[in-house]
Amino acid sequence: MGINGIILFGIPETKDKTGTDTINENGIIQRAVRMIRKSFPELIIITDACFCQYTTHGHCGILDENGSIDRKSSLKQLQAQAISHANVGADFVAPSCMIDGMVQYIREAFDNSGYEDRGILSYAVKYASAFYGPFRDAVNSAPQQGDRKSYQLDPGNIREALKEAQMDQDEGADIIMVKPALPYLDVIRGVKKQVACPVAAYQVSGEYAMIKAAAQNSWMDENKSMMESLLGIKRAGADIIITYFADAAARLIARKL
Predict the structure, then answer these.
(1) In this structure, are residues 84 and 23 in contact, taking their beta carbons and an 8 Å threshold?
(2) Which pLDDT value is given to residue 140?
(3) What confidence score (pLDDT) does residue 72 get?
């Protein structure tokens, strides 16, 4: 279909407090990358690196005794997770845990392990959004206690988004991500002006679900609304769009060409 890149999210067989399956050499992501790389050697493979779907508590890091993110332990394991993905052939690792220093830690781990050619797609700008609902239901990753507002961005705050984007670029990110996409077109535009590296936008599960549900109820034309939403994200400045509509959009574009 002409799609040249994918991003993988894993649902482990077992979960625990520290998400140990993130660094399992035979974990779901590690096995998937091996299989995909063997069959499609030219495909760009990006792997999500986080903890939420691997932990029993559903937070994006290892928790301390007070229930807060243990930054040092989380970053150390995130390094090991990134290396395990690179070992099996991932081209990019995409840290999504929103822990300060995550890009620097992964870049140092890559450089010290001979993976200078591997990229980092950073979820530098990840908002505490209601639009993640369908994904969280699918992977059973909703926080069991509290929420993620302490480490994800306030939807009303664009200044911190620009600051985080610049920090992650300075730490060595190759691509900066804004998530979600459609409610944050102004942020995409602002980040595009702020950084020199490519900007990605993630059209998340809630955005996808709204269009699908409206189309199923004959409230909107699915193809037209899909393409209009993708064009809006592109127009705002996204160089790369991650979307659940990738296959449908690719088929539609191919027919028009």
Answers:
(1) yes
(2) 65
(3) 85
Question: Which is the catalytic residue, given 126, 192, 212, 234?
Answer: 126
193 tagged catalytic: no
Residues whose CB is less than 8 angstroms from the CB of residue 3 and which lie 6 or more positions away in sequence, other chains included: 246, 247, 250
CA atoms within 13 A of residue 87's CA, in its CB half-sphere = 16
Is residue 255 in a domain? no
Domain count, the chain: 1
Q: What is the mean pLDDT of residues 98-124?
A: 94
Over the stretch 166-199, which tens digit does the pLDDT of each residue have? 999 999 999 999 999 999 999 999 999 999 999 9
Q: In the block, which residue shows the tokens 């944050």?
A: 184
* 126 carries an active-site annotation: yes
The CB density around residue 46, as the number of other CB atoms within 10 Å, is 23
230: which residues sit within 8 A by CB, 6+ positions away? 203, 241, 243, 245, 249
Instruction: Provide the pLDDT for residue 202.
Output: 97
Mean confidence (pLDDT) of the chain = 90
Set 15, 17, 38, 179: catalytic member: 179
Q: What is the pLDDT of residue 97?
A: 81
Q: Domain range spanning residue 11?
A: 5-202
CATH number at residue 46: 3.20.20.70
Q: From residue 60, give the alpha-carbon distance in Å to each of 83, 143, 222.
A: 18, 9, 33
Whether 229 maps to a domain, the answer reads no
